[in-house]
Task: structure prediction
Amino acid sequence: MTSISNKKDGSKIHPDVSSSSGLSHSPKIAFSHWDQRYSQEAWSEIPDPELVNLAKDLEPGRALDLGCGTGRNTLWLAKKRWLVTGIDSSYVGLSQAMTRARSLNLNIELIHHDLAEYDPPTRQFDLVVVSNLHFAEPMRTRLFEIAKSALKTGAYIYFLGRHKDSIGHKGPSDPRVLFSATELRDKLIEFEIVSIFKAERNSKSGRPPSTNVIGWAKRED
Result:
């Protein structure tokens, strides 16, 4: 069964928050910019092709999708028999992910939580996905701390961010939230880096393709 819960600390469901739909959420998280965008725009259901390619040969285990949004990567992993937990601050995005999961008869866990205050279960996951989360410091560094804490020894982090070459294209333009390959390598310094590479995404609007930077790395200790 697919469920959405509000978790204050990563283990306990908030006892007094529920809704008639059977979902629960955090009363501390206001209706956000992302709630509005997910309500007004159609979002892709296609998983990151780089994630598909990199994770396709891994033995399915437990996966954590940070900032999962409407669940495109979460649901692909679930289809591949991963036990997936998705976390996001947008209740609208999570609700859309849950609706799709139910229609596909997939079992996933979705948590409504502010990532800045999220402490994951330690050393419990075989894969952590961090895709298209555009944060400046200090939250930028915090994402990698969360990922390392969550991963088992020998488990993988998949990271996709917008490359600095994409300034001026559709998407974030603040250089503080963009990455060069060198900056991503610095963030992955506590991991065993398997690969870092750039990949272009074509725009449906006819604009020049955007450029992403992808990191694939393992927790060593």
